[in-house]
């Protein structure tokens, strides 16, 4: 079996297909440059679930550039950056989300956690307090 098909036949220990199975299939059969924003968004979600955060970020960057007013792709992009330790980029995207939707609870929480991971605990206190207030 070739290396490119090995991931497609991957299964989790519980017998279910591995999340990366679908991202591998999409990479084999889809031309990323020809994909529309909806398919890039869907593929990015699959890659994110497969913990391919860098791959998801690459697709989401194009979606965010095409639809900058949309909050959901930008928030997922920030999460992908956060999980791939691109904390400055995550911070920038989270601030952009909050500019568009100041009551986005999860964005406040993630911004606080992102600032904490950068050792900026004092700055993190404000977004974390706001997240707690919005969650109540």
Architecture overview:
This protein is mainly alpha-helical and 136 residues long. The protein has eight helices and no strands. The N terminus is likely disordered.
Q: Topology, pairings included?
A:
Layout: H1 3-6, H2 19-29, H3 37-49, H4 53-66, H5 71-83, H6 87-100, H7 105-117, H8 121-135
CATH class: Mainly Alpha
Order of helices and strands: HHHHHHHH
Number of strands: 0
Largest sheet: none
Average pLDDT, all residues: 85
Report the sheet-strand fraction: under 5%
Examine the secondary-structure arrangement and name the CATH architecture: Alpha Horseshoe
| Count of alpha/pi helices | 8
Radius of gyration based on Cα positions: 17 Å
Summarize the structure.
This is Tetratricopeptide repeat protein. It contains 8 helices and no strands.
Give structural attributes:
single chain; 136 residues; Serine Threonine Protein Phosphatase 5, Tetratricopeptide repeat; 8 helices; disordered N terminus; Tetratricopeptide repeat protein
């Amino acid at each position: 079996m070739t290396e490119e098909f090995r991931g497609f036949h991957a299964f989790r220990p519980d017998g279910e297909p591995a999340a990366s199975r679908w991202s591998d299939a999409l990479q084999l059969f889809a031309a990323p440059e020809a994909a529309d924003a909806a398919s890039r968004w869907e593929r990015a979600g699959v890659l994110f679930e497969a913990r391919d955060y860098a791959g998801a970020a690459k697709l989401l960057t194009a979606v965010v550039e095409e639809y900058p007013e949309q909050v959901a792709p930008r928030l997922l992009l920030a999460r992908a950056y956060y999980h791939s330790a691109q904390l400055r980029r995550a911070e920038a995207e989270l601030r952009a989300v909050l500019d568009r939707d100041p009551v986005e609870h999860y964005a406040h929480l993630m911004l606080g956690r992102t600032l904490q991971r950068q050792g900026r605990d004092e700055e993190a206190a404000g977004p974390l307090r706001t997240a707690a207030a919005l969650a109540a």
